Fold these 3 entries.
Entry 1:
Amino acid sequence: MKKDEKLEELCDVNDVHRHLVDSVSMDMPEEEILYDLAELFKVFGDTTRIKILYTLFEAEMCVCDIAEILNMTQSAISHQLKILKNAKLVKSRRDGKQIIYALDDEHVGSIIKMGMEHIEER
Amino acid sequence: MKKDEKLEELCDVNDVHRHLVDSVSMDMPEEEILYDLAELFKVFGDTTRIKILYTLFEAEMCVCDIAEILNMTQSAISHQLKILKNAKLVKSRRDGKQIIYALDDEHVGSIIKMGMEHIEER
DNA sequence: TAAACATATGAACAATCATTCATATGTTTG
DNA sequence: CAAACATATGAATGATTGTTCATATGTTTA
């Protein structure tokens, strides 16, 4: 049949692949969601921020304490805390001259834990 | 007492903070572990790689299919697949001319799911 | 074995990013 | 209110990274 031959030409390989392409397109989340998701993981993708999160996992803390613990500049820590705060992973409150930072989401622990499990088992 | 006054000078704020600093240093994982962890999340921190993982969540697939689904260059996909493979998130096998890629770890789903939950609730 | 096909890869480039430095904002204390 | 303290922030810079382009590697088929 000529019609099927033409169809064969149009497809890269065969119909199985074509159907696969269609079904995946269905279940793929919206572009914006995927962007936000990648953006979130990007926040976890930095050693300094991971260390800050680990630190706050222990207790809420002011900026200068975190800087001292990580042996880094106050400025560097402040910049990273802002990123963590924008990602809603950390919250802050003022206490006198200090700004106290704390974890803002119970998912922080779960996500880090999952990551740990993965890297530990190879 | 003179001794305590001197101690007060040495401390940034007070002893409570000092003790905090010590205890956190105790529970902080080794530098190398923290680096690997950040490196892992960095892999999730890119839209293209997130899309690839979502795609493979549906079914194992060859490079050209993924490229077609994501409407991207074969080269770009291949480069990203290499990164995913290095992170042990994806595995590959040859099938004739094609290389079939598939998810290599059950944590991929869990990690993405956790991320999704976080961005969905604010 | 030559041509076609599927994938991998290195170099180059633009874009993104973490840190530093200098300085601004905001709070307390004397 | 001025000085000291804690934090935030903008600009600059070096480093990292995703994509493209050209090409190499490896497999099948005619």
Note: Residues 42, 46, 48, 72-73, 75-76, 79-80, 94, 96-98 of chain B lie near DNA strand D (CB under 10 Å from a C1').
Entry 2:
Amino acid sequence: MRKNYSKQREEIKQAVLEHRTHPTAEEVYGFVKEKDSSASKSTVYRNLHELVAEGVIQKVVLPQGIFIFDGDVSEHSHAVCKKCGAILDIPLALEKAQQAMAAEYGFQMSSYHVLLEGLCKNCTE
Amino acid sequence: MRKNYSKQREEIKQAVLEHRTHPTAEEVYGFVKEKDSSASKSTVYRNLHELVAEGVIQKVVLPQGIFIFDGDVSEHSHAVCKKCGAILDIPLALEKAQQAMAAEYGFQMSSYHVLLEGLCKNCTE
DNA sequence: TATAAAAATGAAAATAATTCCTATTTTTTA
DNA sequence: TAAAAAATAGGAATTATTTTCATTTTTATA
């Protein structure tokens, strides 16, 4: 277990936790640059990867193949607005699916990713 | 509407429809090459893209960001085996989610993507 | 059928996101 | 405080995909 976080590591972690917008690596890099202009991209990518491995943040892929980072590591799903791109966290649980998958397919489901697409509240008003 | 399919276009379509393994673009390229060694990658990518736009096949992204192609365009979900990589089609419908999303978040859900991960039957035996 | 116009192709270059490499800097340890 | 370990910046390398474009193939039509 790592005892201390380096300055950059802490800034990268905070950038993901504070910005609840589900930033991409590039966006995290932008946030970190604001505070420490000497920060490099490789450090951002490396630390994001390590934070994911530690379970501090999670990496989610959007249907277009873009990766976003989420400071909320609890099991939840996402809804992406096709117009503004906003990403909502939704507590959509698929516990029932676990048993159904085992019973019907003999598939031992260990995790799931649900991604909804549509229009968010703002974009339909 | 396109009347006829070119030779390559037809081979590319067939490769996706016949191989129910959910191939990547690279794999489709491999299948097409077997029948027509002169086929190029750009043609495979272009046609896959067009077939998706036409709704003949669909493109799905896996959590690692890899794109796979599916000849079954009906709304269904996928379960990926973490051991062997097998991809199962599963009729997991989220109709209820549609109303719930509208009622709770004002989100007009138009489509969804569900991806389960775990171990398939073969890999647990 | 011959031919002009349109569409599709192959090959290679360009792109974009991410990972890798490495010399240097920073931090930790004792 | 010195040696060892860890982390960094910056750039090169990688990989999957897209774009470009000259050539080939197909289609339409005179």
Note: Residues 3-4, 6-7, 24-26, 41-42, 45-46, 49, 66-67 of chain B lie near DNA strand D (CB under 10 Å from a C1').
Entry 3:
Amino acid sequence: MLIEIDFRDKRPLYEQISDRLKRLIEQGVIGKDELLPSVRALSMELSINPNTIQKAYGVLDRDGYSYSVAGKGSFAADVSALLPARREAFYHELDEVLKRAPALGIGVADVTEHVRGVMKKGEQYDTDH
Amino acid sequence: MLIEIDFRDKRPLYEQISDRLKRLIEQGVIGKDELLPSVRALSMELSINPNTIQKAYGVLDRDGYSYSVAGKGSFAADVSALLPARREAFYHELDEVLKRAPALGIGVADVTEHVRGVMKKGEQYDTDH
DNA sequence: CAACTGTACTATCAGACATAGTACAGTTAG
DNA sequence: CTAACTGTACTATGTCTGATAGTACAGTTG
């Protein structure tokens, strides 16, 4: 349900799974200290080898998105500490995309207009940063 | 000179080479119908196997960035026909990045301001699209 | 105790990437 | 015509990553 595998995606399964879980934790769908599905349960649900799930969970732990306790399970970590780094990564990715604009004849006005068109929701109180 | 390999990059060599050449052709550094370096010459210059260069050139041909003639060489194609598709791909990639903004507390104003800060050059005559 | 949890191995298979070597057909300058 | 270039097409090999399979062990919990 929460996790779905796209077999058309060329990325490795463990990366798809870890990325999907990262976003669920970032967005608060999985709250702080909430129990994640067990390695074996998720491997059953997705029909994927447990080792592959374990690898994905290892990435989550390593990147600070979860903490695991043998015998208990894996839990969502407090991601507020990761916010500055994630914002920096966001602007870096944004810059990489914007680099291509000039060669396409796309200007500042085009981009800003497009941005306003896409990001129009949930902006009642979030405009002050 | 025009092409450089970054061995820290995890992407395959042939992809680095084809991407680099695509941008050179996109930006007009290599003009329409201009002769690209030969497979063997480029393999010597970069100290890379000719088969790897051939694979990169195959990608260029397949994606419409070049056309090759046995005995003569590979030439830059007319990329103007690719412009609409490239613009569409640009906005698609942009949207993918922007999706993450709300979860980071980054609003429209933040993004547009950042965009203006980054894309300030060459905007004297390109603002009308 | 039984059934769960994460974790750590080894082994195997498949595919992608890169290299090496050879070969062939078309083009061009001499 | 010949020699030297061009792209192209193979086969073979080695390496690495991703994924699977199976087993095992330690900690937690009802």
Note: Residues 12-14, 48-52, 55, 69-73 of chain A lie near DNA strand D (CB under 10 Å from a C1').
